[in-house]
Design goal:
The structure is a homodimer. The first copy, chain A, is about 35% helix and about 20% strand. With about 210 residues, the first copy, chain A, is α/β, with parallel strands linked by helices.
Chain lengths: ~210, ~210
C-alpha cells in the first residue's frame, strides 16, 4: 500500500508525523515523503527538518494521500503545480486525507466543493472560500475524503483510516503499539472546552508563530 | 530556553516530534535536534529522515533534555559517548526526560538508579537492569526526571512539563494550539484495556518491525 505524505516549507511537523506513525504500521505500508523537490523541508519555526525522499514528479500514484498543514500552506493555495499534483494523485487514490490546514490545499485543489470538511479551529471559516461546508468535528469523512482538525487530530484520523483499510483489530493493535491511551493534563484541547483567557493566549501564540523565524 | 532532543538511527519519529510540537511553543523555546554527528537520521522503518542540526559535541548544555525511543536505542545502551553526553547534559539540565524506550538510555546512563520510571509496555521489565523501579503509568515524575510510556505518551509528558516550566495557562494554550482534544476511535491504547487478540497482534507487529527494513 503506497502512502504519500506531502512536505513543504513551514509545515507543522506533528501534522505529518502523527499519522505517519500510525500508517507506517499498516501491513504492507510503503510511506513516501514527497515534496516539490527532494530534500529537507523545515518546519514552521525552522527548528526541525524532515526529509522528502521523492519529488512530486516521481510519485504519480498513492493509495493514500495525506496533506499536512502549517503556515506554509498559505502560499501553496495559489501554487498550481502543487494543486495539480494533489488533483492527479487524488484521481487514483483510495483515500485522500488532510490534517489541520492541509484541508485548505484540498479545497484549493477543488476537492471539497459541496463537501463537509474541517481544519484547525482558527481558520475553520476559510474553508467556505473553496465551497466546502466547515464542520467543527475532529475527523470528518466524506466518501474517500477525510479531513482532520488541528495538528494532533491526525493521529485520531489515521487510526480511523487504519480501521477502514485493515479492519478494527489491526487498527486497535496499532493503537496499542503506539500506546495511544491519551491522558492530557488539561481538558482544554478544543475551543468549546477552553476558558476565554486560554483561547486568547492560544490565538496570540499562533499569531506570533505565523511570523516568527528562529 | 534551550531544549535538546537526541536523534539516532532507527528512532521512533513520534517519540521525538510529539513532544517537539509542544515544547517548541514554549515562550523563548530554542529546540535543537542533536545527534552523534550532524545529518539526517532515519526512523525505524527507514521511511522518514529527521535532521540533526547539531552534533553532540556542539551542545553541552540544555535546560530540557529529551531522549526519544525506538529500536535504535538498543545498540546505544552500550555506546559510551552517547551515555556520557546524556550524563553531561543532565548534570546541567533543569529537566531530563524520555519517551518510550528512551528511558533505557537514561537508565544505562545511570540516571534512574532507585527511581520509579516507565517506558513502552513491551519492555517495561528491562528498566530493572538499570536499578529503576518500573511503573506502569503514562507519565512518571521523579524530581527533575520525567519518563513517559510508549510513543504517543510524549505529548502528555510534554504538556505536563510545559505546565511546570511556564504555568498551567501557557500549557493549556499550547494544548489548544495543537488542538489536543484526543478522540481515539478505540479504547485499547494500554495493555490493561486491550483484548488479548489485540495484544498478541500488537506484539507480533512490533516484533516484525524490530527486524524489518524497507
Amino acid at each position: 500500500m503506497d502512502i504519500a505524505i506531502l512536505l513543504f516549507p513551514r509545515l507543522t511537523a506533528l501534522d505529518a508525523v502523527g499519522p505517519y506513525e500510525v500508517l507506517q504500521r499498516l501491513p504492507g505500508a510503503n510511506v513516501k515523503f514527497v515534496a516539490a523537490e527532494r530534500g529537507s523541508y523545515r518546519t514552521e519555526q525552522n527548528m526541525l527538518g524532515l526529509d522528502a525522499d521523492f519529488a512530486t514528479d516521481e510519485v504519480t500514484h498513492a493509495d493514500i494521500l495525506l496533506v499536512p498543514g502549517g503556515i506554509g500552506t498559505r502560499p501553496l493555495i495559489e501554487d498550481q503545480p502543487t494543486l495539480e499534483w494533489i488533483r492527479a494523485v487524488d484521481a487514483g487514490s483510495q483515500w485522500t486525507t488532510s490534517v489541520c490546514t492541509g484541508s485548505l490545499l484540498l479545497g484549493a485543489a477543488g476537492l471539497l466543493e459541496g463537501k463537509k470538511a474541517t481544519t484547525h479551529w482558527r481558520v475553520l471559516d476559510l474553508l467556505t472560500q473553496f465551497g466546502a461546508i466547515p464542520v467543527s468535528e475532529r475527523v470528518v469523512e466524506q466518501g474517500k475524503i477525510i479531513t482532520a482538525a488541528g495538528v494532533s487530530s491526525g493521529i485520531d484520523m489515521a487510526l480511523t483510516l487504519a480501521a477502514h483499510v485493515a479492519g478494527d483489530e489491526v487498527a486497535q493493535a496499532i493503537q496499542l503499539g503506539i500506546e495511544y491511551d491519551p491522558q492530557p493534563p488539561f481538558d482544554c484541547g478544543s475551543v468549546a472546552k477552553a476558558p476565554e483567557a486560554v483561547y486568547q493566549l492560544a490565538l496570540a501564540g499562533l499569531a506570533r508563530a505565523d511570523t516568527a523565524t528562529r
